[in-house]
Amino acid sequence: MTVIRPVRPDEITTFTDLAAATEERNLAARAAVEDLFAKTTSRPEWCFVADDGGQTVASVCLWTRPGHDVPTDLVMLEAGPDETGLALVAFAGEFAAAHGATRQGYALDFPAAPAQHHATVEGRDALLTASGFHLARDGMRFRWTSDREVPADRSGLRWVPITETGRDAFVDLLETVIVDTPDGWISADIAEHGLRKAAETVLADMEEMRHEPHWFEIGYDEAGLPAAVSMPAANSNVSVLGFVGVAQGHRGRGYATAVAARGTGILAATGVDEIRGDCDKGNPAMVRAFLRSGYDNFTNRRDYTRAL
């Protein structure tokens, strides 16, 4: 009989060691979950297993942003689209809802990271869809490393930090940037909350990430008009080009590449070894901006979400 249950603090290897997985994968999973604990983005009591006679046949844990106490997203999900997988994902959703979550997300990377064990994207998609998730974003992930040249911004834009422009100027510009965005997450926010609130949310979410205030900048063109916005930062894992945006009326001039170069230069100056960024597959301007700035498409990511 298979039982879905949380693990005890002394059972972390019960969570990480899948009966059907290789030792290499299980060791990677142990390192990954310990990293989550160290960054306070998960906790032992948020780790759940499908226990079949003392063997772990499926597992998942819950994640939250550093400094937050409500568990939201699924991470380290290892389950197939079968009865056990459905029961495990349902259990995790019920637990999160009982602790204050209203929505739940999951990010499916492919190719899979070493700590992941999903056999196929199709199998994982089937499990998520059957569990009430829908695809919010079909994205590409990009990476710049310090052994590469720091890209130069040759756009002629004049960059002014948020410490001088004020937050209202940022939100005003963000409205013109996201009004027709191909970004699935932001589009859903606009549909649910309206354009102004969605723009405020973009800035508020970025402000929760590690950054120096002067890193957030507006690029003004030769006429003094706000044309682009750059918000490099760092999450709990790596430095990121958190938001790259170009205002309507200023597109087609290479400004997306300028923003990518600007953010990369700011982060590279801090001595980081790696910078990441992502965008929807349906945003060819941003794909070109990353590639022109020396980034490589190292993996792809599908973001799923469901209401709880």
Produce the secondary structure layout.
Layout: E1 2-6, H1 12-16, H2 23-38, E2 47-52, E3 55-63, E4 73-78, H3 83-98, E5 103-110, H4 121-130, E6 134-145, E7 158-161, H5 162-165, H6 167-178, H7 184-193, H8 195-207, E8 217-220, E9 226-234, E10 239-246, H9 255-268, E11 274-280, H10 284-292, E12 296-307
Helix pairs in contact: 6-8, 7-8, 9-10
Describe it for me?
The chain is built from ten helices and twelve strands. The chain is elongated and about 70 Å long. The protein has 308 residues and is α+β, with helices and mostly antiparallel strands. The chain folds into two domains: 2-132, Aminopeptidase (3-Layer(aba) Sandwich); 158-303, Gcn5-related N-acetyltransferase (GNAT) (Aminopeptidase, 3-Layer(aba) Sandwich). The strands form two sheets. The protein has an eight-stranded mixed sheet, sandwiched between helices. It starts with a strand and ends with a strand. 38% of the residues are buried. The mean pLDDT is 94. The protein has helices at 12-16, 23-38, 83-98, 121-130, 162-165, 167-178, 184-193, 195-207, 255-268, 284-292, and strands at residues 2-6, 47-52, 55-63, 73-78, 103-110, 134-145, 158-161, 217-220, 226-234, 239-246, 274-280, 296-307. Strand 8 (217-220) and strand 9 form a beta hairpin. Pfam families: Acetyltransf_1 (PF00583). Residues 157-308 form the N-acetyltransferase domain. Keywords: Transferase.
